[in-house]
Specification:
Layout (H helix, E strand, L loop, with lengths): L4 E5 L6 E2 L6 E2 L1 E5 L4 E4 L12 E3 L3 H20 L6 H13 L15 H5 L2 H21 L2 E4 L1 H30 L2 H7 L11 H7 L6
The chain binds zinc ion.
């Protein structure tokens, strides 16, 4: 079983009690690989790493990376670029002279960027990216249980499997019983047939069937 649970909503009539607090809930965490599922309140899925954490997709990761680089760009425009020494130097330069935006010792690869876009433009793009990220976060349906939580589900599954196996073996034992033996156990007096009385007498003997 993989630790991957999809959050699903069920109809009101299928409401069952939450695994954590036993309150009635219509939210189910479903694991295809088990299969395993249980009910939970939505609130337990928010900022609750002891229970579960969201698993984001590639799109989310890409947007997050973009947002981080925009944040860096904003920071570097505010005075930092490259190493911390450079950033310190830049800050000093900016403080000393507001017109001296580009200190001479700045990495030349970084200089064309700020010239193309203004701080406000980058900020705008950053805000838009943040909005996208928030939307994606709300849309996310995948969760990973905490290691302890997942382990308890795995153990539960194992116990269920064992019980199922026991039941299967019992049923198998029953099915494998010799049909003749069963018939002897549940034999009923035979209805006299049209042959002679002596024959009927023989037929009721166990084992003669
Ligand atoms: Zn609950």
């Amino acid at each position: 079983m993989i630790n991957e649970y999809a959050c699903r909503k069920v109809a009101l009539r299928d409401t069952k009690s939450c695994l954590v607090c036993h309150k009635p809930s219509t939210t189910v965490l479903y694991n295809k690989s088990g299969p395993d599922w249980f009910y939970t309140c939505d609130i337990h899925l928010q900022d609750n790493p002891q229970f579960a954490t969201p698993v984001y997709d590639k799109e989310y990761e890409n947007v997050l990376t973009k947002m981080k680089s925009l944040k860096n760009e904003l920071n570097s425009n505010a005075g930092a670029s490259g190493s911390s020494w450079d950033s310190w130097v830049s800050k000093v330069f900016i403080k000393m002279d507001k017109d001296a935006d580009k200190p001479k010792d700045t990495d030349p690869a970084n200089t064309p960027e700020p010239a193309v876009r203004t701080q406000a433009q980058i900020q705008e793009e950053y805000n838009a990216t943040l909005d996208t990220l928030t939307t994606l976060r709300k849309k996310n349906k995948m969760y990973q249980l905490s290691p302890q939580m997942f382990e308890s589900r795995v153990q539960l599954k194992k116990r269920e499997e064992m019980l199922k196996e026991q039941r299967r073996k019992q049923e198998e034992a029953y099915t494998n019983t010799d049909p003749d033996e069963l018939l002897t156990k549940f034999s009923f007096p035979q209805v006299p047939n049209t042959s002679t009385n002596e024959d009927n007498g023989n037929n009721v003997n166990p084992g003669s069937i």
